Each structure stands twice: as structure tokens, then as C-alpha cells.
């Protein structure tokens, strides 16, 4: 069974890279895509456990990009060979931009009267510290009653604690992945703000390779729609659970019927 979308605690998942591999093996997933947000650190550490458990890893990354001012997630696969140094360097720049934002975000939250430090947030998020970690701290300190409220009232793009961070445009993300010899796939299209069928020509413009038709947020109707769009626009298909561990307990590795032959087609492409 294949599952091409999962996260470790190197981004916002709760399993260590080793635990993720063990969870995959237990769920009967023998081919696992590790697709942490903006980092390869989880994939890099999972190799040993994967060899022991007989799980084949697919190197992936999930980039946060912007399209018309909205966040659109982009998956990059097979970034293991050509041009990898350049791509990894670019990812490190994205991480630096995030850290710079975090410094300004802490200042903003302190100005709003919250007792929160960068060290506290980085103790949770390490290299991938982001708004979800600030939100967790706000809940624990009783400033808000839940994560949702932390975002709605303070951290969301339209809320009063929001601090800008440079994020690549969708087309730039596609270009970087392609330059590095990878496959670029539109992640969980159901979450894209806007009319995806209408946006397809624009999304495909820069050479998008694939669309994630199988995803735990998709109904069977959604999946049928995205499979149809893939056919119409000549795109490959990817799929995965988007497993995050305990923070999304309903999402399990291998919960979707992702066709095995999809990976061979991706490799050919
Ligand atoms: P960052 O990359 O630090 O700006 O944080 C982005 C992450 O925050 C996203 O990947 C989501 O996981 C999470 N996020 C963004 N907006 C919301 C929201 N309105 N509610 C809950 N989580 C959100
Ligand atoms: Fe995530
Ligand atoms: Fe995502
Ligand atoms: Zn994801």
C-alpha cells in the first residue's frame, strides 16, 4: 500500500521520523512519502528505520505558497538527485524568512500583552517553528480557549497579531521543484480558496506535474473531480493521508485506497 503524504515532528506532525516509519509498517504502508512542511529533516532521519522495517521512502516536501494572496500548498517529490543542493539551499532561505518573521511575531504578541518568548516557541517547533506553535502556547497559557480562537483572533492573515512573511508564489514553487528534477503536485486541492476547475489553466501554466486527487479531506466526489481534471490537463495523480499523528487523530496512515501504479507513472514522468 502506498501513502505519499505524511508529516513528522520536524514540521507539524507529532511522530518522530522513526515512529512515523513504524506507524507506516504497522498500517501496512510499504511505500511512504515523507512530506514535511518546508524541510527535509524528517525524511533525512527516517532512512535507517525505513530500511529496518522494509518501508520504501519517497523524498518529499510540502511548500506553503501564495496564489492571489491565498495560501496554496504544493508537494514536491523525488528531490533526491539533480540540483538538490540548489533546492535545499532555497529551502534553507525559506526557513530563514520564517525565523525572521517569528522574531517580529513574538514582538507583536508581546506588544499585545502576551507573555510569550521565541525560545518557548522554538522549543516546540525547532527548525519549523510556526504559527501553530504560538497558538499552542496561547492555549496553554489560557490566553485563548483553543487553537481556532488563537488563529481567528490573533494569528490568521486577517487578525490583529498577523505579521507578514515572504512566501514563494505558487509558480515560483513549481519552477524550483522542476529545476531540481522533482515532480510538483497541487496538495489537497479541496482546500484551495477559489474555483479549482477555473484556476486550472493558471495552476498548470508553470509546468505543474500532478494533482493530489486522493487526500483524507476529499470526499469520493472530490476525488472524482480531481481525477477528471488530471485527465483533462494531462497531469499525473498523487495521493496520501496527510498524516500528522496525534494532532489529527482521525487521519491514519494508509486510510485511503491510493492505486499502487500511480507511483510508477510518477517515476516515468
Ligand atoms: P506559518 O507557516 O508559521 O505561517 O503557519 C502556517 C500554518 O499554520 C499552516 O500550515 C497551518 O497548519 C496553520 N494555519 C494557518 N492558518 C490557520 C487557521 N486559520 N487555523 C488553524 N491553523 C492555521
Ligand atoms: Fe501540516
Ligand atoms: Fe497541506
Ligand atoms: Zn501535509
Sum this structure up briefly.
The chain is of the alpha/beta class and 269 residues long. It is built from ten helices and seven strands.
* Proportion of helical residues: 40-55%
SS class = alpha/beta
Bound ligands, each once: adenosine monophosphate, fe (iii) ion, zinc ion
- What's the helix-strand series? EHEHEEHHHHHEHEHEH
DSSP strand content: 15-25%
> How would you write the strand order of the largest sheet?
1-2-3-4-5-6-7
SS element count, helices: 10
How does the major sheet shape up?
7 strands, mixed
Distance between the termini: 21 Å
Cα gyration radius (Å): 18 Å
Dominant shape: globular
Strands, total number: 7
Mean pLDDT: 94
Q: Give start-end ranges of low-pLDDT stretches.
A: none
Describe this structure in words.
The chain is of the alpha/beta class. The chain is built from ten helices and seven strands. A seven-stranded mixed beta sheet has the order 1-2-3-4-5-6-7. Strand 5, helix 8 and strand 6 form a beta-alpha-beta unit. Helix 1 packs across helix 2 and helix 5 packs across helix 6. The longest helix has 28 residues. The mean pLDDT is about 95. One fe (iii) ion binds next to loops.
Secondary-structure blueprint of this entry?
Layout: E1 2-3, H1 17-27, E2 31-34, H2 41-53, E3 56-67, E4 70-77, H3 84-111, H4 118-125, H5 131-140, H6 147-155, H7 170-179, E5 183-186, H8 196-205, E6 210-215, H9 220-233, E7 236-240, H10 261-268
Helix pairs in contact: 1-2, 5-6
The structure holds adenosine monophosphate, fe (iii) ion (2 copies) and zinc ion.
One fe (iii) ion is lined by residues 7, 12, 37, 244.
Amino acid at each position: 500500500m502506498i501513502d505519499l503524504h505524511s508529516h513528522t515532528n520536524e514540521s507539524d506532525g507529532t511522530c518522530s521520523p522513526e515512529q512515523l516509519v513504524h506507524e507506516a509498517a504497522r498500517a501496512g504502508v510499504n511505500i511512504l512519502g515523507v512530506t514535511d512542511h518546508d524541510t527535509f529533516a524528517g525524511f533525512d532521519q527516517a532512512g535507517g528505520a525505513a530500511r529496518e522495517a522494509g518501508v520504501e521512502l519517497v523524498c518529499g516536501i510540502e511548500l506553503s505558497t501564495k496564489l492571489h494572496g491565498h495560501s496554496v500548498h504544493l508537494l514536491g517529490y523525488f528531490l533526491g538527485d539533480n540540483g538538490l543542493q540548489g533546492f535545499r539551499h532555497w529551502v534553507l532561505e525559506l526557513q530563514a524568512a520564517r525565523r525572521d518573521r517569528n522574531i517580529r511575531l513574538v514582538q507583536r504578541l508581546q506588544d499585545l500583552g502576551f507573555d510569550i518568548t521565541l525560545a518557548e516557541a522554538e522549543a516546540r517547533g525547532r527548525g519549523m517553528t510556526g504559527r501553530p506553535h504560538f497558538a499552542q502556547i496561547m492555549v496553554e497559557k489560557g490566553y485563548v480557549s483553543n487553537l481556532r480562537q488563537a488563529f481567528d483572533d490573533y494569528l490568521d492573515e486577517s487578525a490583529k497579531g498577523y505579521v507578514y512573511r515572504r512566501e514563494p508564489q505558487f509558480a515560483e514553487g513549481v519552477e524550483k521543484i522542476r529545476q531540481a528534477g522533482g515532480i510538483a503536485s497541487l496538495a489537497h486541492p479541496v482546500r484551495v480558496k477559489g474555483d479549482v476547475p477555473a484556476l486550472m489553466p493558471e495552476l498548470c501554466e508553470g509546468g505543474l506535474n500532478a494533482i493530489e486527487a486522493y487526500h483524507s479531506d476529499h470526499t469520493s466526489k472530490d476525488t472524482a473531480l480531481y481525477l477528471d481534471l488530471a485527465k483533462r490537463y494531462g497531469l499525473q495523480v498523487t495521493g496520501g493521508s496527510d498524516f500528522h499523528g496525534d494532532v489529527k487523530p482521525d487521519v491514519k496512515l494508509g486510510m485511503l485506497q491510493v492505486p499502487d501504479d500511480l507511483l510508477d507513472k510518477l517515476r516515468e514522468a
